[in-house]
Amino acid sequence: MATDTDSTPSDSPSPSTAENPLNSGDDGISDKVRSDRELLKRAQAEGKTLRAYVKLSGPGWLQSAITLGGGSLAGSLFLGVLGGTSMLWLQLVAIVFGVIMLSAISYVTLSTGRRPFEAINSEINPALGWGWLIATAMANMIFCMPQFSLCYDALDKNLFNIGGGGGLGDSTTAKWTTTILLLFAASFVVLLNVRQGKAAKFFDMFLKALIGMIVICFVGVAILLFSQGQISIGAILMGMIPDFSQWSSPAGELGAVVSQLSPEANEFWTTKLVTSQRSVMIAAAATAVGINMTFLLPYSMLARGWDKPFRGLARFDLSTGMAIPFVLVTGCVVIAASASFHNRIDDQLASNDLAVMQESPTFAKVEGDLMARVNLELGEEAASTSDEEKLQMIAALPVEEKRVAAALVKRDAFQLSQTLAPLLGEKKAKLVFGLGVFGMGFSTIIILMLINGYVFREMLSMPDANGPFIVGVIVAGLSGASWVALWTDAGTRFWLAIFASTFAVMLLPIAYVTFFLMMNSRRILGDEMPTGGRRWGWNIAMGAAVLGAIAAAATSIYDKAYDASQPAAFPTVMTLLGVYTVAVIGGFWWRAKHAVSA
């Protein structure tokens, strides 16, 4: 990506309270901004910016706290199950594109000092601005639900199970009690950020410590696997090389397994694998940078009083505070899942004896796919064949087909900790995975609530008011806490993260296209708009990110609209697309008319 050379921080006074839209009016804020500018100025003069950047970093860590959530964990697990280490490249590419777009957002915001929502509505298209705002609010409330359930599962299945404990149990009372405690704890942490001063500094330190704990937990597991010879460094390096053929063909060792099957079986299992593979690729890419993250970044920077001199710090913050932790954690989860589940099958499931096969802990989960395979082979005779005969045919299927069926079973982090217990020790496995998973869920709850506070301020055109902020925080928190009433099935709670991620990727192009337009708008950037080679560099990098987001969204919309199990999906999706398309066209017409009259 092309970079721009920031001017040395000047001695000009920091923005006034009126100019900083998120400044609560505390005079100490301006003093802090002035002090930060002086620190940057001295660091640049001495050629020692690294220490200053590390000290002043913050918004990038907020991004890290939200991107390392249940969706990232679920997506990384399934990537490892389906493709082994061969799909490590996907999240690396996704986060690079995310950093490019977030860098563009920070450039626009810090160059102009304007609130993005106001700038989009007045200078580009109010339909894009309101679509961005509403989509962010919806994503906040949807994403909060799986994070609460993820925290509960971490406590129940891992942390409260250490030393022979029985966990929290599956009672509604236990769920509501734990959820309410989590809600109060998250609300307290979020409100620390509002108070500024030492409270806000503690908020930053708490988040950095939480993310550090997550990184240590999962990186430690990967290092141990490597030291025990469970993974190959060569395979990891090869997995970092992008392989776009995985969009349409089975990845990893399963590709070779499927190729050994009969033509009929090959076609059947390839379709199954590629469909699941494509879905999880979209979900994994979506969790790298979601639409609500594009809203958080500019407002968290404005809240700190950052402006033009902080542009270099913003890029550093995104690269170190967000990208590096994301790549480390998700990569290590893929590696651990690959070592435990990829192309693996238990002895019972591999047996040709039906009674033995039915004793497998995964039999119930693979039975549906295996039955569909048998029905395909039977053809017209399937209707007249008894279930018992079909089960015998399932048991007689080649072990390779059963391997593929096992790969389609969704696993969770708690099953992963169980498979690694012999290597880590049962207590250590539960502690490491429990802390890591809980940290991912709780940090994301905090940030989703924080973003919703910013959203409500903008929605009510009260950018410096604490009342709307607190209401937005509470709304997101209560929505997340409602998981107890809305999602009670233990198997679907964890994987709600994947479905929510698919929803988010449908909305992400709204933000990407909008900020692409802003980066090329002289009305917004004036003399700060990149020119010449820098403009070409920005546009090529952003264009690739925009095309990637649109392609992922189009695939997701197509898959959802033509989902045979959901007949109402097509008219619903098409209606939403049609209404929003008309709104965007109308927004551009309104903007053109407004510009002419002005």
Describe the structure.
The chain contains 28 helices and no strands. The chain has 598 residues and is an all-alpha fold. The longest helix is centred in the C-terminal third of the chain and has 34 residues, at 426-459. Residues 1-29 have low confidence and may be disordered.
Beta-strand residue percentage: under 5%
Span between N and C termini? Answer: 37 Å
Helical amount: over 70%
Question: Could you tell me the radius of gyration in angstroms?
Answer: 25 Å
Sheet with the most strands, sense and barrel status: none
Helix and strand pattern? HHHHHHHHHHHHHHHHHHHHHHHHHHHH
Outline the low-pLDDT stretches: 1-29
Q: Which secondary-structure class do the elements indicate? A: mainly alpha
Multimeric state:
single chain
- The helix tally amounts to 28
Number of strands: 0
Shape: globular
The mean pLDDT is 81
Protein topology:
Elements: H1 27-46, H2 49-56, H3 59-67, H4 70-83, H5 88-112, H6 116-123, H7 126-158, H8 172-195, H9 197-227, H10 233-239, H11 253-259, H12 263-288, H13 291-303, H14 311-341, H15 347-350, H16 354-357, H17 363-378, H18 387-396, H19 399-407, H20 413-419, H21 421-424, H22 426-459, H23 466-481, H24 483-486, H25 490-519, H26 522-525, H27 532-561, H28 569-597
Transmembrane segments: 61-82, 88-110, 130-150, 176-194, 206-226, 280-302, 323-341, 431-456, 468-488, 494-517, 538-558, 570-590
Region (Disordered): 1-33
Subcellular location: Membrane
